Amino acid sequence: MNTMTLNAGEAVPAENKATKLAAEPPSVKNQAVKKPEEIAGTVGSPFCDEAKLRMRNVNVFYGETQAIHDVSLDIGRNQVVAMIGPSGCGKSTFLRCLNRMNDTIEGCRVEGELTLDGEAIYGSKVDVVPLRARVGMVFQKPNPFPKSIYDNVAYGPKIHGIASRRAELDEVVENSLRRAGLWNEVKDRLDKPGTGLSGGQQQRLCIARAIAVNPEVILMDEPCSALDPIATARIEELIDELRENYTIAIVTHSMQQAARVSQRTAYFHLGKLVEVNDTETVFTNPQHELTEAYITGRFG
Ligand SMILES: Nc1ncnc2c1ncn2[C@@H]1O[C@H](COP(=O)(O)OP(=O)(O)OP(=O)(O)O)[C@@H](O)[C@H]1O
Ligand SMILES: [Mg+2]
Questions:
Q1: Is 102 in the pocket of ligand 1 (CB under 6 A)?
Q2: Is 275 contained in some domain?
Q3: Is residue 149, in this structure, part of any structural domain at all?
Q4: What mean pLDDT comes out for the span 253-272?
Q5: Is ligand 1 within 6 A of the CB of residue 88?
Q6: CA-proximal residue: ligand 1, atom 3 (nearest)
Q7: Whose CA is nearest to atom 27 of ligand 1?
Q8: pTM over the 0.85 mark
Q9: What rounded mean pLDDT belongs to the chain?
Q10: Is residue 34 part of a domain?
């Protein structure tokens, strides 16, 4: 990719972007020490008109320990929102609230109002199985099922009743693998185990599996952290293509990646949402001193 899109429709040459980004990985020296209570509310624009996901005053606890403090954020339709911040600041915890993956963690409690298209995600009548089909997830470590490449993709459509006849399933499998940019590499070995693919291929297989059930939102938690630059570039291109049809929230430790793939960026620190703005603003003119310190590599 030679260009990237910072705002919808505005292509910026790659070398012009994110002028404040650190040249070196962040060092642990000179950390800007802050306690959660020293961070006031969120600066920037956490809300948007066309929200697909709306979160208000979200608090998350692991037992007695609070991991997320009063976070309010909208994620707009057909938008990629990047979530960045130092390790342990709560990015994964917050992301997992959006499809109730935290339900699977013993002792984890989520408070606040979270809605998907205006419907309560934590409503008492919500069945998490269809919810997680609507809000799919791709994890840091590719986790194909111990099944064939074909069955990895066909499994979801089968259990969700999207396709049942072989011809229908064949079509869903091919379409999903094509959209994930993997079809040409695997079309002659669909019956081979998914776990036999390379790391980058496995991650694209997991993306194909996520999109096979027609999700509306895709959550990605550091999807490229185990991949080489070529596989990473392929997945970043894919994210840009997927945005036409889906809403995407991506956690990343790579600020370059956040700058390349997202339209909005949310900066978390010690469980608080410090700043949300359009991505270009976050990386060129951050409003909060903590955001600036992080993106310029003064701590991380
Ligand atoms: N299953 C768990 N049980 C107890 N505490 C947890 C659990 N998962 C996360 N935490 C705590 O919640 C806080 C936020 O963790 P989280 O994994 O969300 O951070 P993160 O921003 O995703 O970090 P990283 O960038 O390292 O992935 C941390 O203090 C962490 O120790
Ligand atoms: Mg994490």
A1: no
A2: yes
A3: no
A4: 96
A5: yes
A6: 62
A7: 87
A8: yes
A9: 89
A10: no
- Ligand at minimal distance from the CA of 220 is 2
Strands 10-13 and 3-7, sheet pairing: antiparallel
Decide whether any atom of ligand 1 lies within 6 Å of the 93 Cβ.
yes
Residue 182 within a domain = no
Is the CB of residue 87 below 6 angstroms from any atom belonging to ligand 1?
A: yes
pLDDT band at residue 28 using 50, 70 and 90 as cut-offs: very low
Cβ–ligand 1 distance for 199 under 6 Å, the answer no
For 165, phi then psi, to 5°, come to -70, 150
Please report, rounded to a whole number, the percentage of residues in the chain having pLDDT higher than 70. Answer: 87
Q: Name the closest-CA residue to atom 28, ligand 1.
A: 88
CATH code of the domain covering residue 223: 3.40.50.300
Look at the chain and report how many structural domains it folds into: 1
- Which atom of ligand 1 is nearest to 60's Cα? 12
Residue identifier of the C-alpha nearest atom 31 of ligand 1:
88
Q: How much is the pLDDT for 20?
A: 55
Range of 67's domain? 39-141+218-295
Atom 12 of ligand 1, residue of closest alpha carbon? 67
